[in-house]
Design brief:
Helix content: 40-55%
Number of strands: 19
Structural class: alpha+beta
Shape: elongated
CATH class of the largest domain: Alpha Beta
Distance between the termini: 110 Å
Number of domains: 5
CATH superfamily of the largest domain: Ribonuclease H-like superfamily/Ribonuclease H
Largest sheet: 6 strands, antiparallel
Radius of gyration: 49 Å
Strand order of the largest sheet: 14-17-18-19-16-15
């Protein structure tokens, strides 16, 4: 159905007679011509021009019938007008391709003379062409000569058959060298070459390909320098626009400036040639630094024959592509696999599976790797072997204070020495971190591609990417989803089961021979590791013992250090409380202690004085967040046992503290020490206090006589001390006087007197 748009000034469609229709059509045609031929307006801003179907066919270079069909199909913006023979289409110029619009504008004088540029001759001498252009031009000229000779022998009316016969002979290889250099061609292409020769006085150089560029980067033909700058400005962008989008934007700019449009094929040839000569800058501008590093930047070759097994370990994390049950919640989730690989032999030495890439997972994998390597060297599973160096990822967990230690002058005071520094006495040299998004530095990155084989063997495989999703996880795959439910493909293994499956595959991978790695020379990782360790024993006969460490010593070294303030319930760590009798007597809230803990054994921690002295090993108190409030009545047997243990610890500390205090008091009494008797009183103070007491006593006696209360006695239970025994020699000061003096001294010390 045609799109009929009525513009201001257009006529309404009404039934008319034949003569009226013809007259009206002629008038309307004239009105349209008048609109588009306004010579005083050299632009079409705000106006729309409509052309006939025949004019559109001429502009597009197609038949009248083809344009008429496109009008009926609604391909162009059209309107219907009355004309000879009835209704006729008029096509909006803006709905035609841009090239056709520009040709129409030039034909009708709508392009300013100063904007028109004469096309430069495409024919350049051979000495300004490259060798490839020159050879292509001569080969095309030879094909044209053979083509003309074949056509000249054709009879009248058999020209077309002669052309097709020549193309068949050419494609069959009658001129193999020309076919190899030029490639296949059609007789229409050769006719166009003939026309090019005619336009250039028969010069063979006119047949040279005109989409190449000179050595200084200037366009030879097709794209001018100004057009090239526009194209590159849009193309070299981080959003990576498509070439078709670039062409539309560039043509829109050229249209506004009244310049000739560019075709998509020309732009593609231009960008292809520019990419060949400027690949590094194109990749950097469109794709970024990582793509440049992966595709264009040179890489440094490593010779792993210069190192031996056990010297360099490479560590990295990988998100497993199948769900595993969370140990706490039981929900399936994709967990992290942390692995340590020996760089010389490519053997995986140890790994750990945890919900996230954290310090505990990395430390556990590193510990297992050293123990397994020590077991291979010595045959003792309680001996670990320390590597010389580590090459690890630049993730946050790999750079934690547990590994690197605390920086600054307070490091020694708080015991913040990292694991790497603690391993240096055993021959460890240091760590090198890989750069961001530069996986080439870590040889273990290739291993993850092999590990995908193990992931694909799992029934609950989720895919390493969106494109690699299994069928039953894709949208609309009801059949595969039903099959997966029947086969229980969504069942997730536990961490223990996943460890077992990964261990089987790791062992098989270390035994596998591969020809892809030139470093192993056809050996399996196990064979390369065994052969390298023999050389290592010979090389480090004297220093081998220094790099060996027992399991217990390694566990102690790998226990992280942290400072904590002592409180009533001991030391708080990870939401848990740790208490011991040695910590119970220390002042609370006034001292920070150094705590060492093991990720695999959080039921107790080792406590040290800030000067490094070992204090005690504190056990967890009130585990699992606390004791059940009514354990005996409402709790489980496990809750009752937890309450019994906590109460026993509390009562034990209470009894030991009471016993210690009681023993001290009795010992002091036996030795004749008493705070009441042994208080030292200065003579001057005593005199002043006694004099004041006597004056006060006289005042009270005088007052008692006046009131008649002098005969009353003070009850004995009111007295703070026992009355003096009868018959004892009266001291210079009575007990009551000494007690009063001490009470007043204490009041004076507390600020009652100023």
């Amino acid at each position: 159905m045609s799109n009929i748009i009525h513009f201001p000034g257009s006529l309404k469609i009404t039934p008319k007679g034949a003569n009226q229709g013809a007259n009206q059509g002629a008038n309307d045609r004239g009105s349209v011509r008048t609109l588009v031929n306004c010579q005083e307006l050299k632009h079409l801003q705000g106006l729309e021009a409509f052309i006939s179907v025949q004019d559109g066919a001429n502009l597009l270079g197609v038949s009248f019938r083809a344009v008429q069909k496109n009008c009926k199909a609604g391909k162009y913006v059209t309107k219907l007008v009355h004309g000879n023979g009835g209704m006729q289409y008029r096509i909006a110029l803006s709905s035609l391709p841009v090239d056709a619009q520009m040709r129409w504008r030039k034909e009708h004088g709508f392009v300013a003379e100063e904007m028109e540029k004469t096309a430069e001759s495409n024919c350049k001498p051979f000495d300004e062409m490259s060798e490839q252009q020159r050879q292509t031009a001569l080969d095309r000229y030879d094909v044209v000569m053979h083509y003309k000779e074949a056509i000249s022998r054709a009879k009248h009316g058999m020209i077309l058959e002669a052309k097709e016969a020549f193309i068949s002979r050419y494609a069959a290889g009658e001129w193999p060298i020309l076919l190899e250099r030029i490639g296949t061609a059609t007789w229409k292409t050769i006719d166009r070459w003939i026309q090019t020769l005619k336009d250039n006085n028969g010069l063979p150089s006119s047949l040279a390909p005109n989409y190449r560029y000179t050595r200084d980067g200037a366009a030879v033909v097709g794209i001018s320098m100004e057009q090239g700058e526009m194209i590159l400005a849009y193309y070299l962008h981080g959003n990576q626009p498509k070439i078709s989008e670039v062409v539309r934007k560039v043509n829109r700019k050229l249209y506004d400036r009244g310049m000739e449009q560019v075709t998509e094929s020309r732009v593609r040839r231009f960008l292809k040639e520019y990419h060949v000569n400027n690949e590094a800058s194109v990749v950097m501008a469109r794709e970024g630094e990582k793509a440049y590093n992966d595709k264009c930047a040179p890489y440094i070759s490593r010779n792993n024959k210069l190192i031996l097994p056990g010297e360099i370990m490479v560590s990295d994390g990988h998100k497993i592509a199948f769900p595993i049950q969370h140990p706490v919640t039981g929900q399936p989730m994709r967990m992290m696999l942390i692995s340590h690989q020996d760089q010389a032999s490519r053997a995986i030495l140890g790994w750990e599976i945890m919900p996230s890439e954290n310090t505990a997972a990395i430390a556990s994998s590193f510990r297992r790797s050293m123990l397994w390597l020590g077991n291979i060297l010595t045959g003792d599973d309680a001996i670990a072997f320390v590597p010389r160096s580590l090459k690890i990822d630049n993730g946050k967990a790999f750079k934690s204070h547990y590994f690197t230690g605390l920086k600054g002058s307070t490091m020694v005071d708080v015991g913040g020495i990292g694991l790497y520094d603690q391993l240096k006495p055993m021959g460890f040299k240091g760590v090198s971190y890989s750069r961001v998004y530069n996986g080439q530095e870590k040889t273990i990155e290739r291993f993850w591609g092999n590990f995908a084989e193990m992931e694909r063997s799992m029934p609950n495989y989720t895919g390493t990417s969106i494109a690699m999703k299994p069928a039953h996880l894709r949208r609309g795959e009801f059949m595969h989803r039903e099959i997966a439910e029947k086969l229980q493909l969504n069942t997730a293994p536990t961490i223990a089961e996943a460890h077992y499956l990964v261990a089987l595959w790791m062992h098989d991978n270390n035994l596998r021979h591969t020809s892809k790695s030139s470093q192993l020379e056809g050996k399996s990782p196990y064979e390369a590791l065994e052969a390298g360790l023999v050389l290592l024993r010979e090389k480090e006969k004297e220093t081998m013992q220094e790099r060996l460490i027992s399991r217990d010593e390694l566990t102690f070294l790998m226990m992280p250090q942290i400072t904590r303030t002592l409180k009533r319930n001991g030391i708080s760590l990870f939401g848990r409380q740790y208490l011991s009798p040695e910590l119970h007597d220390l002042a609370k809230g006034q001292r920070e202690l150094v705590v060492r803990y093991d990720f695999d054994r959080l039921d107790g921690v080792a406590v040290y004085h800030p000067n490094g002295e070992f204090l005690c090993f504190a056990q967890e108190f009130c585990p699992n967040g606390g004791i059940h409030p009514a354990a005996k009545l409402l709790g489980t047997p496990k809750d009752v046992e937890a309450y019994r243990v906590a109460a026993s610890i509390k009562n034990s500390l209470h009894r030991s503290t009471r016993r210690k205090a009681k023993t001290g008091l009795l010992s002091a009494a036996e030795k004749g020490f008493s705070q009441l008797v042994q208080g030292e009183v200065m003579p001057d103070v005593v005199r002043q206090q006694v004099k004041a007491a006597e004056e006060q006593a006289q005042k009270e006696a005088a007052s008692a006589k006046k009131t008649g209360t002098d005969a009353m006695e003070i009850p004995e239970e009111w007295l703070l001390v026992d009355p003096e025994p009868a018959g004892r020699e009266q001291p210079e000061f009575s007990y009551k006087d000494i007690l009063q003096i001490q009470i007043e001294d204490e009041e004076k010390r507390r600020g009652f007197y100023h």
